[in-house]
Amino acid sequence: MQIKKYLYSFTYDNTERELSKLESRSIFKQEDKNKLLFSDVKIAPSYSAFIKNRLAVILFSGDYASLIEAIKKENICIDGFKVEYIVIEGDTTKYKQRLEKLKDIGFSIDGEPDYYQPTTTYALCHYEGIWVFGILVKDKFAWQKHQQKPCSYSNSIHINIAKALVNIAGNANQEKTVLDACCGAGTILLEACFAGRKIEGCDINWKLCRDARRNLAHFHYTATVYRSDIKDITKSYDAAIIDLPYNLLSKATNQDIQHIIAAAASIANRLVIVSTSDITDIIKNIDFHLSDYCVVRKKGNLKFVRKIWVCEKIEQVFT
Ligand SMILES: C[S@@+](CC[C@H](N)C(=O)[O-])C[C@H]1O[C@@H](n2cnc3c(N)ncnc32)[C@H](O)[C@@H]1O
Question: Could you give the residue ranges of the DSSP H alpha helices within the chain?
Fold first, then answer.
């Protein structure tokens, strides 16, 4: 097994499984295995709804005693530290042994521990026969505050999907510029701003633009929201997210959908489209190719299916 810089643990239910895997393919170019993933790519756990924690690997060894010796040699000196044991699927270490191992590590670090408000949390886990020691960062779910945004609608996208769309659009690259082409009340904009992304929004409906701006201001985020038909946006972006209109609140004909997708395709190289219907033919007509795809079912209403389409501009080759 190849040890990388970071070990990520995931959490998702059956309705989100496919979306989490699509998000991982976009960020890490690989999927988790048993809700674990080793990667050299660094991302804050709070940027994804599905990443529970990240262990930054300091040391690893197939032999436990050698690992403890190596930790001692690191001469770690820190006040307020805590050590946790991460139980990974397949790890048969008993509770009592786990406590012993935490003590071993605690005694290998100089400084006063703090179990309640640690400055640094170290962790140990046993993964596929290897003992891994590192610094643990947990998702504290600070982004859940967005659930209390002042303006919300029944067709606002679920916050977990919004976070995934931001990651899928920008890969793991904070520098990528993204347009939320049908931003509505700004659910996706909030998650992008939380993650420090370069995003702007656009919506044809002035009331929704007003509400998106109110939501952004409420959390002290700054992102430009254009009150505009997407066809009138001339600025270019690396990627566009399109949460297509689909119900009575935001009615749209097939022609409207084609028009929105074609307009976004003319100003972005990568499209992440959310639809409730099959848009394969529309994608074919805009010189983009479908690079990834998944479906997301609604919790509590499994018949309601959202389709997520990731499309890339087909590079024109001139001879
Ligand atoms: C499904 S809603 C988006 C919801 C949004 N993601 C949220 O979570 O609040 C689709 C949005 O597309 C907007 N829309 C429809 N046609 C548009 C167009 N031609 N240009 C820009 N926005 C458009 C609608 O006003 C509506 O707000």
Answer: 17-28, 64-73, 95-106, 159-170, 187-194, 206-218, 254-265, 280-284
Q: Given this model, what pLDDT does residue 182 score? A: 97
> What one-letter code names the amino acid at 80?
G
**Cα dist from 309 to 47, 288, 304, whole Å:** 21, 11, 16
Closest CA to 134 of 79, 80, 63, 74: 74
Domain ranges, residue 213: 142-313
Confidence bin at 1 (pLDDT 50/70/90): confident
243-270 mean pLDDT: 89
Q: Which residue has the tokens 């209390």?
A: 148
- Single out the residue in 92, 118, 138 at which a domain terminates: 138
Other CB atoms within 10 Å distance of the CB of residue 75: 9
One domain for residues 256 and 224: yes
Q: Which residues share a beta bridge with 307?
A: 275, 295
Pocket (CB within 6 angstroms of ligand 1):
153, 155-157, 182-185, 187-188, 202-205, 208, 229-230, 243, 245-246, 250, 252, 256, 260
Q: Can you name the residues that pair with 309 across neighbouring β-strands?
A: 273, 293
- Asked whether residue 319 is domain-assigned, the answer is no
Provide the domain count of the chain: 2
